[in-house]
Every structure is written in structure tokens, then in C-alpha cells.
Amino acid sequence: MARLLNAIVFAAIGCHPQRPAPATKAAAGPHAAAAPTAPASMATAQVAPPAGLASAPAGDSGWTNGEFGGERWGFVEASTHTGRLVALRRFAGSERPSFGHHGESSAPSDLALFDTVEQTERPLVEVIDIDPERRWLLVLTPQLFLIDGNTGAWTAINGADTTEDNNRCLPPRVATFSELGKRAAWIEAGSQRLIVRDLAAGTEWPVAARGRLWRGWPDDDGRGATVFEVPGGSSEWPLQSTSCACRWCTRFAASYGFYGWGGPAFTMSHVDESGTRTRSKGSPSNPALSHGPADDRRELKAAASDGGLQRGSWSWQPTKPGK
Question: pTM of the predicted model, to two decimals?
Fold first, then answer.
């Protein structure tokens, strides 16, 4: 995949899904090793994950012999490289949904994160991003969390600007990983700074905006970032003109197009460690939400599949010889 997005057309990998129903029963959080300690000035804290479904209604999402997700139609949005975490988008009802020309679904959907070690299901609003190595996830619950797919540990990112920009086919603006996945970054409330976290060291630092920070991407090395900004007095965000129906709808769409931008003009800059700004050609590109085999060569299998959709339940199974 190209590693640089065109400044006019972002990768069409984002949309605002219908929000899942609140959890009906609290689930025990994973007991994982603590993540590196962040500086006291930064608003991150390792916490128990949000309440989820400790046990699902019969016939829906119960865990049986390693199978999960229930007998519903859906697809995998992302999975971690160990196979521990799996994000499933599933459609309401027992009938296979149909899709319109631009990928619109006939049935509402919800999103959930399954921990195959803890055997828990937790509702999500959005999987924002996954790093290229498929270890780390950035998710909204609607609280922003950074999740370690190796340990299952959830780190709450407090004080992030989770204000939506209403771009239904872009990822949420609040957070992203760097191109190679060495850093995570999120926009601080007030849209004046990008906070960058080095995932190996656990250290954090800010990158100051000029105007209002719309979106930002940290560098993998040094302490710079690429930032897209709007004038300081702007009360709105740039809005993409598109026929794309939603972030995941493109997988079912016959066609869709992008037709420029509305809203306030935005500038694209790279800011280095000293604060020096240079013009940027666009945003560093991360892969689309990623799913694949686990490191031990297991594959995630569904009970049935049809035209890009799967019907649960799902389970990790050994790869057949010769593959």
C-alpha cells in the first residue's frame, strides 16, 4: 500500500458506526503487566477495561469450545497478531443483510472487541487504528483507549479531543499511530496540541499547533509530526464531499467517489522537534484496519461466508498443511 496519502483524498477507511447497546453485565478486566509509566503531566492511566458482556444471551455471543460472536452475519474489522483480540462488526437479526449502491446496509450493525484469552466481549464505538505490526489498537468506547494486544492491557487516554468532524468515511480525528507504528498520538482537548507517546519507552511529549489542530500524525523518529490545521477562529472542521456511505461500507459498495472539500480551508505542515515548520504533501499513511493469520499460523474461521460477509460463530483454527 502506498505510504503517503494524497492531500485531497484520504484513505476511505472511516465512518461513524451505529453505537452498540450498553453492556448488560460487567466483565472482569484482564490482569496484565503494567504499561510503561507516563510522565505525571500527561493524562494517561492504565485502568480496567470498560464494562462488557461477561456472558452473552443464549445463542448470541457465548463462548463454546473457543467459538465466539454468535450466529450473526458480520465481518472482522481487525485482529491482533497473537490472535488474542478480535474486533467484529455484526449485523442485527438472523437474515443476511443487503447493501445499496454505495454500501448502505439494510440492517443496523454493532462493533465489539473479543478477548480470546479472557473470553470477554466489550462493545466499542469505533476501532480508530491498528499499528502495522497488529499489536496495538486505538479504540473509542466512547472513551479513548490504547490497547496492548499482547497483554490485553487497556490504557485510558484522558483529556483527548473526541469531538467528531462528521467525515463519515474517515477515521475519527482524535488519534492515530505513526507510519511504522512506533508511536501513538492523540489530539488534546481544545485542539491546540498533539500528544505523542513512544510505545516502547512510554515517554510522552506535546507538539504545539498553530490555529486549531484538525488531525495529526507523529513521526516514527525524533519528536516531529505532520499536522493539518484550520484557522484559530474556525468553529467547524473540513468536510469531505463524497458519495461514500460509511467507513466500512466501501467493502460492499458498487462505486463511490470523492469530490473535494467543504468547510474551512486547512494547511498541511510538518513540525520538527525545534518547532520549525515546512510544507507537507499529505498525511503519512497507515494500513487499513488489518486482519490476518495469527503468528502461530492459526486462521480465524467463521461457520459460513457469502460475498464478503461471514456468519458466526468464529474461532481460530490451525492453518491447513500446504498453506
Answer: 0.83
The DSSP annotation for 110-135 comes to EEEEEETTTTEEEEESEEEEE-TTS-
Q: How far is CA 93 from CA 73, 100, 125, 178, 246, in A?
A: 8, 18, 19, 38, 20
* 187 CB neighbour count, 10 Å cutoff: 27
Rg of the chain over Cα atoms, rounded to whole angstroms, equals: 20
Length of the chain: 323
Cβ atoms of 308 and 251 within 8 Å: the answer is yes
> Whole-angstrom Cα distance, residue 171 to residue 144?
13
Q: How far apart are CA 37 and CA 201, in angstroms?
A: 9
Decide the pairing of beta strands 239-242 and 258-262.
Answer: antiparallel
CA atoms of 283 and 287, how far apart (whole Å): 12
For 262-294, the pLDDT digits (tens) are 999 999 999 999 999 999 988 877 655 688 899
Question: Which residue ranges make up each domain of the chain?
Answer: 44-318
Q: CB neighbours (10 Å) of residue 133?
A: 14
Which residue bears the cell 468532524? 165
My answer on whether omega of the bond before 313 falls inside 30° of 0, hence cis, is: yes
pLDDT by residue (tens digit) across 69-125?
A: 999 999 999 999 999 999 999 999 999 999 999 989 999 999 999 999 999 999 999
Number of Cβ within a 10 Å radius of residue 232 = 11
Sheet containing strand 204-208, edge to edge, reads: 175-177, 183-187, 193-198, 204-208
